[in-house]
Amino acid sequence: MAKEKTKIGRYLKEVMNSGALIPDDTTLEIVSEYLKRPEYEKGYIMDGFPRTSAQAEAFANGIDKVIYLNVPDKEALWRLSYRTDQREDDTLVALRKRIELFHEVTEPVIEHYRKKGQLVEINGENSIEQITEEILRSIEK
C-alpha cells in the first residue's frame, strides 16, 4: 500500500520513511479490510503483525501461532542495510529507530504470546533450509 500513489499510500510511505510504526488504528483498519477477502477464509499467514499490544488485543481470537525469527540486533541491522530490495526507509537512522521500536513495542507482544503458549521461536541465524524446516514443522502441529 505504501507504494500506491494514493493519499493513504503517501501517508504510509512518509511514516515508514521516518522509521516510525504505522498507528494502530490505521494498521488494524488495513489488516481487517484485507482479511475480509474470500481467499483468506481458510486461513492466512501475516508478516510483521501484530507489532503492538493493541494490535494483539484486537486480534486476540484471530491468531493461532506466532513465529518469531530471533536475530541479534547487529545481524538484523547488517541484513537490513544490505538486503537486495532496499526500501526508501532503509537509512541507518531509520533502521536503528525500527530496531529500538521493536524492543520497546514488539518485545512485550512476543512475551504475551510466549506466556499464552502460542509462540514458536526460531533462531534466525540458522540456514534458510533449517528455518524453513522449523517453520513448516511448527505449522503442521
Descriptive overview:
- By secondary structure, the chain is mostly helical.
- It has a domain at 46-140: P-loop containing nucleotide triphosphate hydrolases (Rossmann fold), CATH 3.40.50.300.
- It is built from six helices and two strands.
- It has helices at residues 7-17, 24-35, 53-58, 73-82, 92-115, 128-140, and strands spanning 66-70, 119-123.
- It has a two-stranded parallel sheet with strand order 1-2.
- The protein is globular and about 40 Å long.
- It starts with 6 loop residues before the first helix and ends with a helix.
- The mean pLDDT is 88.
Distance between the termini: 33 Å
Uncertain stretches of 5 or more adjacent residues: none
For the secondary structure, the number of strands is 2
Q: Report strand order across the widest sheet.
A: 1-2
> Topology as H/E string?
HHHEHHEH
What percent of the residues sit in helical stretches (DSSP H or I)?
40-55%
Query: What spatial form do the alpha-carbon principal axes imply?
Result: globular
Arithmetic mean of pLDDT: 88
Which SSEs are present, and which pair or pack?
Layout: H1 7-17, H2 24-35, H3 53-58, E1 66-70, H4 73-82, H5 92-115, E2 119-123, H6 128-140
Parallel strand pairs: 1-2
Helix pairs in contact: 4-5
In brief:
This protein is mainly α and 141 residues long. It is built from six helices and two strands. It has helices spanning 7-17, 24-35, 53-58, 73-82, 92-115, 128-140, and strands at 66-70, 119-123.
Protein traits:
141 residues, mainly alpha, two-stranded parallel sheet, 6 helices, 54% helix, globular
